[in-house]
Specification:
Layout: H1 4-13, E1 20-25, E2 29-34, H2 42-47, E3 53-57, E4 60-64, H3 69-80, H4 85-92, H5 98-132, H6 141-155, H7 157-168, H8 173-183, H9 186-193, E5 197-199, E6 205-207, E7 210-214, E8 217-221, H10 229-249, H11 255-296, H12 298-315, H13 322-331, H14 344-358, H15 362-376, H16 381-388, H17 393-412, H18 438-459, H19 466-471, E9 475-477, E10 480-482, E11 484-488, E12 493-496, H20 504-507, E13 513-519, E14 523-525, E15 530-535, E16 541-546, E17 551-555, E18 568-570, E19 577-578, E20 583-587, H21 589-594, E21 601-605, E22 613-616, E23 621-622, E24 627-632
Antiparallel strand pairs: 1-2, 2-4, 3-4, 5-6, 7-8, 9-10, 11-24, 12-13, 12-23, 13-21, 14-20, 15-16, 15-19, 16-17, 17-21, 18-20, 22-24
Helix pairs in contact: 1-3, 5-6, 5-7, 7-8, 7-10, 8-10, 8-11, 10-11, 11-12, 11-13, 12-17, 14-15, 14-16, 14-17, 14-18, 15-16, 17-18
Length: 633
């Protein structure tokens, strides 16, 4: 954990985790409710590196961290073992939609496994590569051992997903693992292996159904190795529902062993008799559906998946494809859907290389160089968020190049035979068990075309080095050349000094230089052209980073986070690009004042230390888009 030491020190100096009633966070600070504030070592906390100050207000003990508070919060929660579900809901004031809940569940279940799953897939890819190069034979001991290393995690995947699913659903993780182990129990597998195969009229060989009985009820044995849907549904039903039921009715003195006892006795037969078969058939239907869509036009499928994959990644929607891919690998032994996206990272990297060639901006180059290197290995977040997405056009060009790469793979019939690594490490994943084929050549061609096309489109797009030019705009004052950026007023109202605010985090300037405004209208507009980098779910505070890099915090009122979003209506989303004067948030001044909250709103430059000075307006009142602050670069 990045902030492990800081998190431990915070917990210790707020009086220990036993002194914490609840914990949430807003845009800059951790907000504790403590049983006894006198147990907290306030002065010690104030002197710590990584803590700006401590504020006691509204019945909360507030530890001011700064812009990276979400990361510190995550580590404090993890180390302290604090419950977050209730506090998050209270802070957001809204319930997740069904779709968002699905994405959250999938990411929570699969994310912990992907590193090892990719690593074992890379080993399988290496084995396939050695076979295709005739450096190993399929009967050699080396091949068998490497194959076991590569196959084991994927084969026993239900056990590992049993653990992560139980953790996600707040169930007993060892019960989850046991349920996964039951599904892949070797005896069941060996019983199935002894049954004959039947050939259908179309030549497809299928295994005859294998039945056992449980208390006279027929049980259809199925292969659950490498499966994903059966175990997730089993743990959800067993852990989230049945285990909790038994926890409620069984006395505490015998809960330790009787809750698992009754849970397994009920859930395991239910999984084998009902959940497993239904989930397996659903999985086969899902696999058949994806193949049917692919077969309608592999080229169109490739164009679509290639073009939009990076968009899916930005919004977290790519998690919805992960179980489909693993399901296909399990049932079909190959995947043709996520496989079509493989050229996207290389297209993105080609665009970044062109930006690197074109730009003379040292700051952009310092971002682009590591983004290019990580992109080669399939990690494109630095490229997307640091280079292409903020400049829009490069990102669009990378999507175009990725679409062409996906179309080529669709045309060539490329398939992915294992979940391997990212970037260049993922190439062996496309080697067929029968050896190198047309599909493998297709992925190589798509990588080259995606990379080169992205590079050429960016290089000859006519996109000027806008950032470099804007940063080099200069204002002449005598013989001195000074670079500057103007921040306009996001509010209409009376200008006040930060020192007048009854919150020392703002009044002492520890969060940055700036001013405060007593608003006369309930509307916040963008003070610069830039990106909404932070928008707290309650709508009471937001952060904007200008196109030149100035970081601006707007905090509507004092302690208004406790309204939990009432009277605030956000008009933009986090990550949106905005123009100066664009409406960002609307709020009900009268209703907030009636609740007893101050609406004095600080506007501060949180990265003031990066600049020569921040000059405040000399006006007593301001209207929207009047000059408010001048940042001397």
């Amino acid at each position: 954990m990045k902030y492990e030491k800081l998190a431990k020190d915070i917990i210790k100096n707020v009086g220990g985790k036993e002194n914490v009633i609840s914990l949430t966070h807003c845009i800059t600070r951790l907000r504790f409710k403590l049983k006894d504030e006198s147990k907290a070592n306030t002065e010690t906390l104030k002197k710590m590196d990584g803590i700006v100050t401590v504020v006691k207000s509204g019945g909360q003990y507030q530890v001011v961290i700064g812009n990276h508070v979400p990361d510190v919060y995550a580590d404090v929660v993890a180390i302290g073992g604090f419950q977050t579900e209730g506090t998050e809901k209270a802070a957001s004031g809204e319930k997740k939609s069904l779709f968002n809940s699905f994405i959250d569940t999938i990411s929570g279940v699969f994310a912990p496994t992907l590193g090892v799953l990719a690593a074992t897939g890379m080993i399988k890819g290496l084995n396939a590569l050695l076979i295709s190069m005739h450096l190993l034979t399929a009967t050699s001991g080396t091949y068998e051992i490497l194959n076991a290393i590569g196959d084991s995690f994927f084969y026993f995947l239900p056990i590992f997903l049993g653990f992560t699913a139980a953790k996600k659903f707040n169930a007993n993780q060892f019960i989850g693992m046991t349920l996964g182990a039951i599904l892949v129990y070797p005896t069941f597998t060996s019983i199935m292996a002894g049954k004959p195969l039947y050939t259908l009229f179309n030549g497809t060989a299928i295994q005859s159904p294998v039945y056992l009985t449980f208390l006279g009820i027929p049980v259809i044995l199925m292969s659950y190795s490498s499966s994903v849907i059966p175990i997730i549904l089993t743990v959800y039903v067993g852990g989230a529902k049945i285990e909790k039921f038994f926890k409620k009715i069984i006395p505490d003195v015998v809960k330790t062993f009787l809750v698992p006892f009754f849970t397994l006795l009920v859930v395991a037969p239910l999984a084998l008799i009902v959940i497993g078969p239904i989930a397996t058939w659903a999985g086969k239907l899902l696999g058949a559906l994806t193949i049917a869509i692919y077969n309608l036009s592999p080229i169109i499928a490739g164009l679509f998946m290639g073009a939009f994959w990076q968009v899916f990644v930005i919004f977290g929607l790519h998690w919805g494809f992960i179980p489909i891919m693993i399901n296909n690998l399990s049932l079909l032994h190959y995947d043709t859907i996520v496989a079509l996206t493989f050229a996207a990272s290389f297209a993105q990297t080609g665009v970044v290389l062109a930006v690197l060639v074109k730009t003379k901006n040292p700051k952009l180059r310092s971002i682009a160089i590591p983004a290019f290197v990580s992109g080669i290995f399939g990690v494109t977040e630095p490229a997307i968020y640091g280079v292409t997405l903020p400049r829009k056009k490069p990102f669009i060009l990378s999507c175009i190049a990725a679409a062409v790469g996906g179309g080529i793979m669709g045309f060539m019939g490329t398939k992915m035979y294992m979940l391997g690594g990212l970037g260049i490490f993922g190439i062996p994943s496309f080697i067929s068990p029968k050896g190198i084929d047309t599909g493998f050549y297709g992925v190589i061609i798509s990588i080259v075309v995606g990379f080169v096309l992205g590079f050429i489109l960016m290089l000859f797009s006519g996109l000027k080095d806008e950032e470099s030019k804007e940063e080099n705009k200069e204002v002449t004052s005598g013989d001195i050349l000074i670079k500057q950026e103007t921040v306009v007023s996001p509010l209409k109202g009376e200008v006040k000094a930060l020192s007048e605010i009854k919150d020392e985090a703002f009044s002492k300037g520890v969060l940055g230089k700036g001013v405060a405004i007593e608003p006369t209208e309930g509307r916040i507009v963008a003070p610069v052209d830039g990106t909404v980098t932070t928008l707290f779910p309650t709508g009471h505070a937001l952060g904007i980073t200008s196109d030149k890099g100035t970081e601006i915090l707007i905090h509507i009122g004092m302690d208004t986070v406790q309204l939990e979003g009432k009277y605030f209506h956000a008009k933009v989303k986090q990550g949106d690009n905005v123009k100066a004067g664009q409406v960002l948030v609307e709020f009900d001044i009268d209703a907030i004042k009636k609740e007893g909250y101050s609406l004095t709103t600080p506007i501060v430059i949180t990265n003031s230390n990066n600049y020569l000075d921040v000059i405040e307006t000399d006006k007593k009142t301001v209207n929207y888009t009047d000059d408010l602050l001048t940042v001397m670069i």
